[in-house]
Design goal:
alpha+beta, FAD/NAD(P)-binding domain, 3-stranded antiparallel β-sheet, 2 helices, 20% helix, elongated
């Protein structure tokens, strides 16, 4: 979650921001009534009454399985497009052209959404990138 959102939420009396906390269970009968929360610092589990839960996914990329296959930044997000060209040196496999926008370090493999390094981390942007990636895949296949 963005720092500015955390600060705005801290100003709302009926909202509690809990860092280093994992939801382990959602409880209720037909609707959400409580959450079981585990502190990752102390491992203590606590039941907290709640009728709403907002899930933020994409903050931590699950890309370890791509190690050695696609280039990632220091946080594990996938590098793409111009971010792959360093000091005017293209990555291997890109002898005749620079990587296209959303193209990863493997020619013809594209990335969209939260897992891309420096993405906006918003649904509308991810949808737009997905549509753009499809167009780029078609272009890649047509030229290959």
């Amino acid at each position: 979650m963005s720092h500015y959102l955390i600060e705005q939420l801290r100003q709302i009396d009926n909202v509690t921001v809990r860092l280093s906390t994992v939801v382990t269970e959602c409880c209720g009968d037909g609707h959400l009534e409580a959450l079981m929360l585990r502190s990752t610092a102390s491992d203590v589990i606590e039941s907290v009454g709640s009728s709403h839960l907002f899930v933020f996914i994409g903050a931590e990329p699950q890309t370890d399985w791509l190690d050695g296959v696609l280039r990632r930044d220091e946080h594990g997000f996938l590098l793409a497009g111009p971010d792959l060209v360093v000091d005017r040196v293209r990555p291997p496999g890109f002898d005749d052209r620079d990587p296209w926008p959303l193209e990863t370090s493997v020619p013809g493999v594209f990335v969209a959404g939260d897992v891309r390094s420096d993405s906006v981390k918003r649904v509308a942007s991810a949808v737009g990138e997905g549509a753009m990636a499809v167009t780029l895949v078609h272009k890649y296949l047509r030229l290959s």
